[in-house]
Amino acid sequence: MDNVVLFDGVCHLCSNTVTFVVEHESAPVLKFAPMQSAAGSRLMREFGFDPQDIKTFVLVEDGKPYLRSDAAIRIARYLRSPWKALGAVRVLPRPLRDWAYDVVARNRYRWFGRYDACMAPKPELRVRFMVE
Q: Which residues, 6+ apart, have CB-to-CB distance to 56 below 8 Å?
């Protein structure tokens, strides 16, 4: 199974984060799937998550799902320097990291906005997006 980032495809913050990851990855190895897509929904159900309950993004790495701050920290490992250093937040206790993550996640639409439909990847990136 590919390493896949499942994200809220209508969230400005989430979509911009995916764009950031694509632009700063050390190698193009991650795949991406909006949770609202058929592929994203299927993967969410496969790992026991409700596809309608979009509270966090998920990294599926080597067949195992990672959520919230754990997912963000693991994604940072795929980035080029200096962005890879973002993973250093792992030294903070998980309850503190996840609390901060949850505050942003709860307010993401209000603070950053939302799209009417899922983001459409640029043509050269379509092979990295799973939608069906």
A: 67, 68, 71, 101, 105
Above 90 in pLDDT, residue 56? no
Residue 34 phi, psi dihedral angles, 5° rounding: -60, 140
**What are phi and psi for residue 64, nearest 5 degrees?**
-120, 135
Q: How far apart, in Å, are the Cα atoms of 8 and each of 12, 60, 72, 116? A: 9, 15, 14, 12
Per residue in 8-48, pLDDT tens?
999 999 999 999 999 999 999 999 999 999 999 999 999 99
- The two tokens of residue 68 are 């919230």
- 124 vs 116, higher pLDDT: 116
Q: Phi/psi at 130 (nearest 5 deg)? A: -100, 120
Query: What's the half-sphere exposure (Cβ side, CA atoms, 13 Å) at 98?
Result: 10
CA 59 – CA 31 distance, rounded (Å): 10
